[in-house]
Amino acid sequence: MAGYKQAFRKAFPYTIPVLTGYLFIGIAFGVMFAEKGYSFLWAMLMSLMVYAGSGQYLAVNFFVPGVSFLNVIAMTLMVNIRHIFYGISLLERFHQMGKKRWYMIFGLTDETYSLLCTTKVPKGVEEEKFLFAISLMNQSYWIIGSAIGGIAGALIPFNSEGIEFAMTALFVVIFVEQWMEEKNRIPELLGVAAAFVCLQIFGVDGFVLPSMILITLVLLLGRKKLETGMEGELCR
Fold this sequence. Notes:
Blueprint: H1 4-35, H2 40-49, H3 54-59, H4 69-80, H5 82-89, H6 91-95, H7 100-106, H8 110-118, H9 127-155, H10 165-181, H11 186-202, H12 208-221, H13 223-230
Subcellular location: Cell membrane
Organism: Dorea phocaeensis
Main location: membrane
């Protein structure tokens, strides 16, 4: 455990924005899960074993009769396929973390990815322990929020219509944060343009996967120019 205490202490301030966001969207997930008749313990277990953010929101609708296993696989893949591309950009850093790399891959959410890419490791702290602390604390916030929401949803009856928008709001905040921090905003503009084009072609229900594929192709083809323009800002 040598060095972990300092790593967690140094990492915590960077995770405060995720703490505030994950508590609320975790609570929203817990409430939605409780409304399906499940105990808060199931919400906690799902946040511990699945930990898929928007995928968990989507999964709430899977626990109803008539939903096929193939539909579950297809929808989950469409919503969370972006995590594959996140992992590709961090393969080298995770490879150096030994056995902890398996948890780092599992815990790579949008918010964690953003922190791992933009946060500089403080002096006197080992990088692998610092990154591990960020990932572990972020998941703990999500689990705690899920538990609170599950308990509240079971004990306090209220209208939860629209509560799932909490996840969308968090994505918007992440996008704005990235936009404000980076000088070269070409990747963000390309992402918005690709999503808009695919939305017009495939519609609301089918544009996510084509958008991710198009964004990836464009970024791969223009990688050298983008890396030069961003002056080392890309996550490696």
